[in-house]
Structures are given as C-alpha cells and as structure tokens.
Amino acid sequence: MGPVVIVGGGLTGLVAAERLAAAGVAAPVLEREVEPGGACRSVEAEGFTFDYTGHLLHVARPETEAYLAGLGVWDGLAVHERRAAVVIGGRATPYPVQINTHGLAPEVRRDCLLGFIRAWAAHAAGAEPADFRAWVLERFGEGLAEHFFFPYNSKLYRARPEELSLDWVGRYVPKPKLEDVVDGALGLYRDPVGYNAVFRYPREGGIRLLPDAVAARVPGLEPGRELVALHLGERWLELQGGERRPWERLLATISLSALLDAVVDELPPEVAAARAALRWVRVANVALGVAGPAPSPEHWLYFPDPELPFYRVGFPSNHGRVAPPGCHTVSIELSLDPGPGEVAAAAAAAEAAAVAAGLVDPAAVRVRRLSVIDPAYVVFDHPRRQAVALLRRFLRARGVLLAGRWAEWKYSAMEDAILDGMRAARVLGGEAADEP
Ligand SMILES: Cc1cc2nc3c(=O)[nH]c(=O)nc-3n(C[C@H](O)[C@H](O)[C@H](O)COP(=O)(O)OP(=O)(O)OC[C@H]3O[C@@H](n4cnc5c(N)ncnc54)[C@H](O)[C@@H]3O)c2cc1C
What we know:
The protein is α/β, with parallel strands linked by helices. It has twelve helices and 19 strands. It has three domains: about 5-40 and about 60-80 and about 205-280 and about 380-430, FAD/NAD(P)-binding domain (3-Layer(bba) Sandwich); about 95-185, no CATH class; about 280-380, Polyamine Oxidase, Chain A, domain 2 (Alpha-Beta Complex). It has helices spanning about 10-20, 60-70, 105-120, 130-155, 170, 180-185, 210-215, 255-260, 270-275, 345-355, 385-395, 415-430; strands at about 5, 30, 40-45, 50, 75-80, 85-90, 90-95, 200, 220-225, 225-230, 235-240, 245, 250, 280-290, 300, 310-315, 325-335, 365-380, 400. A hairpin with a 4-residue loop joins β10 (about 225-230) and β11 (about 235-240). α1 (about 10-20) packs parallel to α7 (about 210-215), α3 (about 105-120) runs antiparallel to α6 and α9 (about 270-275) packs across α11 (about 385-395). The longest helix has 26 residues, at about 130-155. It is globular and about 65 Å long. Bound molecules: flavin-adenine dinucleotide. Flavin-adenine dinucleotide (FAD) binds near residues 13 and 414.
C-alpha cells in the first residue's frame, strides 16, 4: 500500500486511522480545526457542556458495541428511553405522531385519523410512489401529511415534498398498522417505536467522549491542517499556508461538495454537472445554559409549524450531566440555505420564538453559544443518487476513497460513521472492496 492520507478528523476519519494504526499502517489525519471530532465535538462554558448540536447514540450492531467497549467508553454511556414529542398547534403529543395523535386538538386528530383510514382503504398494491409527497399521502394520508410530514420536512430540507426522493425514508420513518394508528388516537398505544426509541449518551460531559477516545489512539492526527487544493492527476494536496503533500491513496471524509471544489484539475463536464447537482442545508444550533429546571421533561420536541423558525428544540441536560446543579441546557436547531447567508439574525429570531413559545426564560439565560454545521443535511432530491454514484466512481478511479455522512453524501448517524471508518480501513488494507 502506498502512502495513505486521511482528510478530516471527525468520527469516520478517526476510526479509519485508528483501525489502520492497529493494523500497523501509519496514516496522517489532516484536520482543519484545532480539535478533532467534527460534528461530534462538545465545548465547555461556565460549567455547561454544549454539543455542537444534539447528538444521541443509537447502537444497532454488535461490532459497534465491541468497538466502543474496546475503547473503554461503553460503560460510560447511560441508556435512555426516548422522551420525544411533536408539537402541533401548541399541543404536544409523543413522537412518532402517526401512532400518537391522542395529544393533539380533536379536529387535528380527526384529520389525521380519517386521512389515514382513507389512505389505508384506498391502498392498492402496485406502482411505487414516485416521490416523498406521493409516498406520505399513500402511507399516512392527508391529515398527517398536512399537519406533520409536509411542513416538518419542508422546513428541515428547505424543499417541497415532491422534490424529495424515497432513498432515505425506509429506516427513518416508521410504518404503522391501522390498529396502532387507531390506538394512538385513543391514547392506548404504548410500545416504543422507531430507530431511536432507545439511545445512549455519556453519563458525564458531552458527546465528544466518543471522538476523543478514538483520537487518543491516532498517532498521526494533525489538527489545524486544512486541505485547500487537491490535484487528482499528480496526486498531491495543498494545505492552508502552502505546504504540499503527495498521496497514493486518499481517504476523504470531508463533504463531497467541498472536496470537489478543492480539485484543481479541470473536471469533465458530467462531473462538474454532478457536483453542481449536490444540494444541502446548513443547521444553526443555538445552545443555551439556563438557570432553573428545564421547562419540559422531554429530551427533545419537533416543531412542524412553518411559522416557527426552528424545527427541533432539545433539553440535553434531561439526559446528560451537562449543566451545573439547578440549571439546564436548551438546544434550538434551525435549518438554513447553504452559502454565506446571515446566521446571527436567524439564530436570534429562533431564540425569540423559543422564548415566545415558553421554552426559554430569557431572564435566566446564563450562557449562549451558536454553532453552524455546514453541510448538515443532504437533500435527497431526485438527481442525488446518480450524481453521487458518478462522483464516487470518478474519484475512486483516481485513488480517492469516500467515507462518512458528508463524503458519501448520505443521511447517517454516529454508529454509521464508526462502521464507515472501519470499512474504509478494510478497503485501504485490501481486505474489502469499496461500495459499487
Ligand atoms: C443536526 C445534526 C444532528 C445529528 N444528530 C445525530 C444524533 O443524534 N445521533 C447520531 O448518531 N448522529 C447524529 N448526526 C450525525 C453525525 O453528526 C454524523 O454521522 C457524524 O458526525 C459523521 O462524522 P464524519 O467524520 O463523517 O464527519 P464530520 O464530523 O463532519 O468530520 C469531518 C471532519 O473534516 C474536517 N474538515 C472539513 N473540511 C476540511 C478540510 N478542507 N481540510 C481538513 N479537514 C477538514 C472537519 O473539521 C471535520 O472534523 C447528526 C448530524 C447533524 C447535522
């Protein structure tokens, strides 16, 4: 194996480097920031710990547990049963709303129930729905579509429902049975549902526990090294400041869009077009350290209402020791278009709306921290799948392997980042083939 260089010291890049190091392969990890961890970083301020944005660990695979146990962090993770709610018209009902409409206003409940029953009765096996809009209407009916699925996803992805494909929905949107929906409207449904019904979170401190534990085993970590230019033909990269490094194999874990924007070779027209087709949103997270008890026992709340600037508000101190005694933390997340657009004003408007909704007492706020994750969510529009496959093939043929949520331009979680990092190390070590 020629010299391997890893770009990006988030969870994916760190795990890949750790696995390679364990196999005796030294690979530098070039990380732009002064600290590793990427989206899974946490910061401390005045006795509070803030994650860059809400990060809860869902573990489905035994190899993830074994890996985290090997790092010595598994026992430091507490298990929580999800307490999440959806707020519609000012009324909260447990998540997922499709089997829990009992907390909503009677007329909203009626819309949801009737819509579901009509869709269920009309359902005929046959053609697959063409887009997210058709899929929601067929599966959940008009009431749930109009009160939750359409406004929530439009706010999060800043896209109309018909612009979205179905490539992401299977795992993340639980499908209910008719009896469950009826029971849910009557308040009878009790089973925890969905991929995130149970989660883990560090007992002490924030989610940085995970990347920090991996980083401690990565001898080649180089913080403060930003890739600014990449020559695919001559296989060198340039760092901020002008230093050039040769590479034989490059493992990229930074976003696919940023990686391609750094390429200095002329891109073939179809590759440039595929890059131009990539669409995403940024997320701003307003983290607050607040005196007094949390205004809600929930771990987090979803807000589909288009009038509210945020899509989700969390209370991380309800699941981790991240606030001094007698205080709590709040995390207000809003979705923004990409680009250099103004963040501070949008964040201030979101905080003001959270105050108006009774979620924050402005007089009790002690610390405020704003972070921006860019890209945050890939928009699964119709051109995405083909564009990503083409870009992946193009880069692979030139020695570049992609791994992780943003490099592979997908929707995935920390467990996937760990597994992606492991897989990348196996591919680089010649033990596995890259995805087609
Ligand atoms: C809003 C939001 C909420 C989420 N919530 C959860 C959750 O609750 N549970 C969960 O499991 N997952 C969650 N995730 C997903 C999770 O954050 C990712 O799966 C995981 O962090 C991906 O890690 P990564 O290493 O692939 O990417 P990153 O963490 O982005 O790592 C990439 C690294 O590359 C560095 N970098 C970027 N550009 C350059 C450059 N030019 N040169 C050098 N370095 C560079 C970055 O600084 C970063 O450290 C959430 C994501 C978002 C956006």
